[in-house]
Amino acid sequence: MDLPLPETLQRLRRHAGEQALNPQELAADTALPEAVVALLLEGDTPPADTVDERVCARVKVLADAHMSHHKKRLSDLVREVQQCCGISDVWARKVLQGDKVPSVSLLHHLADFFKVEGGESFFTASSADALNRVLLTKLSAYEDPNSDPIRALMNKHGIVSTDLRMHGHQMSNGQMEQMLADILRSVINPPDQGQR
Length: 196
Prior knowledge:
Elements: H1 5-16, H2 23-30, H3 34-41, H4 51-70, H5 74-85, H6 89-96, H7 104-114, H8 121-124, H9 127-143, H10 149-156, H11 173-188
């Protein structure tokens, strides 16, 4: 489904209101600045940038998020990228800090390393295209519920919506994974129905 960003926003708002349009979450999903996401959500145009500026900024955002999430130092990440991508530690450091533009082949390796959807285009797409890619995924969960197995399961059992947050705090990836594993375990190995 290839829709322009304004139409994607309109259709998503029709299905989910503003709940699917959290600028902070969308900024994390796209490696865009939150202010740019907010501008795009309002229908405004963000400041112009070059492909090189986009690539450097998004690599740095991903590197910073990776270090924060995995509680690593830059030197640890540099070593991992250097080994994974076959580049010098000096070059890896400059790329991860957003100081140098990676080559196309290095960009391919970085897309694999950071496990980003869209491959190299994750780094090179315009801000509007990057946001639209993420929003189209959200929209497809509403317009094609079978593409989202959790939503399909909810629809099958008549669950209109669910809140997977705990007391106002969002579940961590680990908590979400554990909850889904418990659900799958109960479906695959249901408790003995004779015991009560």
